[in-house]
Design a protein that fits this description.
The complex is a heterodimer of chains A (315) and B (273). In chain A, 36% of the residues lie in helices and 24% in strands. Chain A is an alpha/beta fold and 315 residues long. In chain A, strand 6, helix 6 and strand 7 (179-184) form a beta-alpha-beta unit. In chain A, helix 3 (90-99) crosses helix 4, helix 4 (105-114) crosses helix 5 (130-142) and helix 8 packs across helix 11 (284-300). The longest helix of chain A has 17 residues, at 284-300. Chain B has a domain at 19-201. Chain B is 72% helix and 0% strand. Chain B has helices at residues 22-34, 37-57, 66-77, 81-102, 104-111, 115-145, 160-187, 190-210, 214-221, 224-231, 246-270. Chain B is globular and about 75 Å long. The chains are: A alpha/beta (315), B mainly alpha (273). The interface between A and B is large, with 63 and 46 residues. Bound molecules: adenosine-5'-triphosphate (ATP) and magnesium ion. The site of adenosine-5'-triphosphate (ATP) has 11 residues of chain A, from strand 2 and helix 1.
Chain lengths: 315, 273
């Protein structure tokens, strides 16, 4: 479990993390989302005691990081895949890290095997591809069989196999009762992996909720209708109390306020040609975009701005 | 390259971990130092210079007094020190600067959050390399010089002055290594650290001691190399010159390790990694 209270980090006049309070629970995968520069990496560095908070505190399994006796068995972190000496081999790098905790060479070989690096273990880490570097970082994080794993952008640079592998690993670790905390830019990835999301923007927590709840609260739930008679159908739907938005395609509209079944009936009653009728996917990406758009508008002081609703048209 | 389907992090038995402190940091730092080829290239060049230079420049002895001869012989063995110490400094500096230039520091200090323990371990490793180079180099040079160290120019371990030259030289090697590792933490730059040490060892003393300014002369006199010469000086000190007494020279030399090390300790604990 990771607990941050009022955690704040300022670099000069720049506030990177701004009075952040959250708890990362064991047994689930928690996604840590936010745009570039939101403060994700800074928060993670403070969790690991690398950066000193300007204010507030954060504990790992109840203790400040510096007080952990065997930190690698409490939390395994991948912070920066390039944070390895480029002229040392992968295996020797891991042996050096393992030595700080008296972890055996057998365990080093185990994590190399687990991350698929056995064959390249003797190669210099500087010659690794981005994906291999990520695997090496993950191997290092798993060395101490930690109760918590924390990965900053773990799928960055991984091929589809690698992405699937990280997803399975994260799920399995959480199922076994560990705390899993992942930051990512890839919404679809987080949607498939996380149970809970913490969203940070400009150093502040914007949302902290179970994934499904967050998506339901912020995603638009509309029905996508394709019809060669889109104009007429839009009129009929509006007459029945629905709200209509035009989408990219001339024959396509998005309807809210009336469900798909009812739209089908309206089309039949008005003898309108219906080519396609389906519920719009309510994805994390949509929800995230809506939330951050709201934030942007709020900050810019233009609450009626047309950031995402510019598609709105009066048909 | 394909990874095994993850079961969990532990395919086998339970992973045993032990307290992360100085002792294990020392083992880790030893693995780090010896698994870089650059370490051994530096050690190789240091030994080559250590042995090669005296062999090239040492002539047949002209001294007749065995007491003087023993001291001169020990000085002959350490002829190359000015140059070798620069390589020792590079080695010591890289132990700390490479952590910051490669980003490895984040791994190092998450594995051992006790920053003081990590610095102490690095200083120990730097000192051991320095001592290793000095001892192996000195013994090899002794044999390489062969007949040139015979007769009145023989080593004599009963000669206190000669033993003092040896001990102060060895202290100088350790001081340089610790100073370089500490400066590396303060500057976090390989080039900056090595340049500073080269300036202090080779460039500044000559300039500072020759300009007509008392302050400059004093600063020159406390440069580590100058302090080390003062520590083994047997001549009476001319009251008109600025030169440290042997005792003060030794104290200043040791301070060049202790003070930067303490400063590095304080800064390392206070700064973000
Ligand atoms: N060491 C530092 N010195 C000064 N400013 C910093 C430092 N580290 C981070 N920042 C600033 O703090 C803010 C947060 O950065 P951080 O790296 O935590 O964001 P992030 O959410 O990880 O972004 P990304 O998704 O791009 O990785 C940024 O504006 C960044 O420029
Ligand atoms: Mg980041």
């Amino acid at each position: 479990m990771i607990e941050a209270r009022d955690l704040t980090k300022r670099y000069g006049s720049k506030t990177a993390v701004d009075h952040v309070t959250f708890t990362v629970q064991p047994g689930i995968v928690t996604g840590f989302l936010g745009p570039n520069g939101a403060g994700k990496s800074t928060t993670m560095r403070m969790i690991l005691g690398l950066d000193k908070p300007t204010a507030g505190q954060v504990t790992v399994n109840g203790k400040p990081y510096a007080k952990l006796v065997t930190p690698l068995s409490e939390i395994g972190a991948l912070i920066d895949a390039k944070g390895v000496h480029p002229r040392r081999s992968a295996r020797q790098h891991l042996r050096a890290v393992a030595a700080t905790h008296g972890i055996s060479d057998k365990r080093v070989d185990e994590v190399l095997d687990l991350t698929g690096l056995t064959e390249v273990a003797k190669r210099k880490a500087g010659n690794f591809s981005l994906g291999m570097g990520q695997r090496l970082g993950i191997a290092g994080a798993l060395l101490g069989d930690p109760k918590i794993v924390m990965f900053d952008e773990p799928v960055n640079g991984l091929d589809p196999d690698g992405v699937l592998w990280v997803r399975q690993l994260a799920r399995r670790l959480a199922e076994n009762g560990r705390t899993v905390f992942l930051s990512s830019h890839l919404m679809s990835e987080v949607q498939q992996t996380a149970d809970h999301v913490i969203i940070i923007g400009r150093g502040k927590i914007l949302a902290d909720a179970p994934l499904q709840e967050f998506v339901r609260a912020h995603a638009r739930e509309g029905v996508l209708v394709t019809s060669p008679d889109a104009g007429g159908l839009a009129e009929a739907v509006k007459a029945a109390g629905g709200t209509v938005q035009a989408v990219d395609h001339r024959e396509r509209i998005s309807v809210t306020g009336i469900d798909a079944r009812e739209i089908g009936r309206i089309a039949r009653d008005n003898s309108l040609w219906l080519a396609e009728l389906r519920d719009e996917s309510t994805s994390l990406e949509d929800a995230y975009m809506h939330l951050t758009a709201e934030e942007t508008e709020y900050r810019a002081g233009v609450p009626t701005g047309k950031t995402d609703t510019a598609k709105e048209a009066s048909q | 390259m394909s990874a095994a389907t993850p079961t969990d992090t532990t395919p086998g038995t339970e992973v045993v971990t032990h307290r992360a402190g100085y002792a294990r940091a020392l083992r880790s730092e030893w693995i780090k130092a010896r698994t870089l080829r650059s370490t051994w290239i530096l050690v190789g060049f240091a030994l080559l210079a250590f042995i090669g230079l005296p062999v090239l420049v040492t002539g047949e002895t002209t001294v007749t007094d065995p007491a003087e001869g023993a001291v001169a012989a020990m000085h002959a063995i350490f002829t190359a020190s000015d140059f070798v110490l620069i390589l020792v400094a590079v080695l010591g500096a890289l132990l700390t600067t490479s952590e910051f230039t490669t980003g490895m520091a984040r791994n190092t200090f998450t594995a051992t959050p006790k920053r003081g323990a990590v610095l102490a371990a690095k200083a120990t490793i730097a000192s051991l390399f320095a001592l290793g180079i000095a001892v192996v180099g000195a013994v090899a040079t002794f044999f390489a010089l062969g007949d040139k160290l015979s007769g009145a120019a023989s080593l004599d371990f009963g000669n206190a002055e000669m033993v003092k030259v040896l001990v102060v030289s060895l202290i100088g090697y350790v001081v340089t290594a610790v100073l370089a590792a500490s400066l590396g933490v303060l500057l976090r730059s390989s080039v900056g650290t090595i340049f500073t040490i080269v300036a202090m060892q080779l460039i500044l003393p000559g300039i500072l001691l020759s300009v007509p300014s008392d302050i400059a002369n004093w600063v020159g006199a406390i440069m580590p190399g100058v302090a080390a010469s003062a520590a083994v000086n047997t001549e009476p000190i001319d009251p008109g010159t600025i030169f440290l007494t042997p005792g003060a020279g030794l104290a200043v030399l040791i301070a060049w390790a202790v003070l930067p090390f303490l400063a590095a300790m304080a800064v390392l604990k206070a700064r973000d990694i």
